[in-house]
Design brief:
This protein has 415 residues and is mainly alpha-helical. It is built from 14 helices and no strands. Among the domains are: 178 residues, no CATH class; 56 residues, no CATH class; 32 residues, no CATH class. This is Cell division protein FtsK.
């Protein structure tokens, strides 16, 4: 049976693996397309940049010459102010990364590529700042922008070169760093292309391996028979359904357990006897005697060995159990508690009257309005008795055996 389920498991897993591969491939292609689109938009904005366009640094009413409108003018102005001509070097790797994602869907060592890209852009801006600016350059900074001037100034301070030839020497140094860094970041080296083509050669024999696993005769020779993700998910779902079913069954058994005990077990009878004993002011110890007296008639046929037809009659005795319970149990229902009488000390220490009792005349009673009838419903003795029975059954459900000896109207329950 285990071997018979294995082909369906492999087919089920193959469906999910194929779907995951399809989604991952489309996501990589979409990411690459976004990178190419962003790189192209930035390139168009830089190509049509004009210093007279409105931007964050220039407030003017002149029309925008940038092809991308005022968003392109703002982005191009920020890049030219910060990176200068080095912004061109920053756009090229982004376009190549997007092209590689759309073509092969792989772009390994992303952190290293990003670090090399930042290093190459910084070196390119420093190289542009090392070149002499012409009269047509509209910005007050060098050709490398603010970042290029800062990097070049720091390099001159570290090396101690400050004359005219120092810029040329540092320019050649930054040119080499920019070329090597940007080339490695773009992945244009032969080793990178060889590493990129190797996985395609390894993935070629995969369909043959999948065919061998799906074969019925060779499936017995496979040592690992671990289920796939699809089978595991179906098993977890089935386990959850079975657990819910078992929980519902246990809850139903607990709910119907007290009713079965009342129908078939005579154990709760001492509690009824103790209730009757409480009404008659008799000790609780007499309850087992009452139970024995009730069970005595059931045990009487056991001594008659001559007739076997009476052997099964004691088992049917729990039926008249409802008649054993006394109906007039409303005697435990007491009246509502009355207000306590004032004591002698309270009357003695009460505040004296401020009026002259001999000359003062009380107002007529006709000035008083009739008392309003209470809207609260009156609780009858039957309702109080029913509430007591419900409370006893609820306590029995929680394993508490108790007898309510007296019931009075009020919110307080005392056992």
């Amino acid at each position: 049976m285990r071997t018979a389920r294995r082909p369906s498991s492999s087919a089920y897993d193959g469906l999910f693996s194929g779907l995951r591969a399809f989604i991952a491939r489309r996501t990589q292609e979409l990411t690459g397309l976004c990178l190419v689109a962003v790189a192209g938009a930035v390139a168009v904005a830089l190509a049509t940049w004009s210093v007279d366009d409105p931007s964050l640094n220039n407030a003017t009413d002149l029309p925008v010459h940038n092809l991308l409108g005022w968003p392109g003018a703002i982005i191009a102005d920020l890049l030219m102010q910060l990176l200068g001509l080095g912004a061109i070097a920053a756009v090229l790797p982004l376009a190549l990364w997007g092209w590689r994602l759309m073509k092969s869907g792989e772009l390994g060592r992303l952190q290293l590529r990003f670090a090399l890209w930042v290093m190459g852009v910084g070196a390119a801006t420093a190289l542009a700042s090392a070149m002499p600016a012409t009269d047509r350059w509209p910005l007050p900074t060098g050709l490398g922008g603010v970042a290029g001037d800062a990097i070049l100034t720091g390099a001159k301070a570290i090396t101690g070169l400050s004359n005219g030839s120092a810029s040329a020497v540092l320019g050649f140094l930054f040119a080499g760093i920019a070329i090597l860094s940007l080339t490695a970041a773009c992945g244009l080296s032969p080793n990178e292309e060889r590493h990129h083509e190797e996985p395609e050669e390894e993935e070629a024999p995969r369909p043959v391996r999948r065919r061998q696993i799906a074969d019925w005769d060779e499936a017995e020779e496979i040592t690992h028979d671990e289920p796939g993700w699809g089978i595991v998910s179906l098993g977890a779902l089935a386990h959850g359904v079975m657990s819910l079913r078992a929980t519902a069954r246990r809850w139903s058994e607990k709910r119907h357990a007290p009713a079965e005990d009342e129908d078939f077990e005579p154990a709760p009878q001492p509690r009824r006897a103790s209730r009757d004993g409480a009404m008659r002011r008799e000790p609780v110890l007499d309850a087992p005697l009452g139970r024995a007296s009730r069970t005595a008639p059931a045990a009487a046929p056991a001594y008659e060995d001559e007739d076997d037809s009476y052997d099964d009659e004691p088992m049917a005795q729990p039926v008249p159990r409802a008649a054993i319970r006394p109906e007039p149990v409303s005697a435990r229902v007491g009246p509502a508690p009355t207000a306590p009488k004032p004591g002698k000390r309270m009357a003695r220490e009460a505040q004296p009257s401020l009026l002259d009792e001999e000359k003062y005349q009380l107002p007529q009673l006709s000035l008083l309005a009739e008392p309003k009838k209470s809207s609260a419903p009156l609780i009858s003795a039957e309702a109080l008795e029913q509430n007591a029975n419900l409370l006893e059954s609820t306590l029995e459900d929680f394993g508490v055996r108790g007898a309510i000896t007296k019931v009075s109207p009020g919110p307080v329950v005392t056992l």
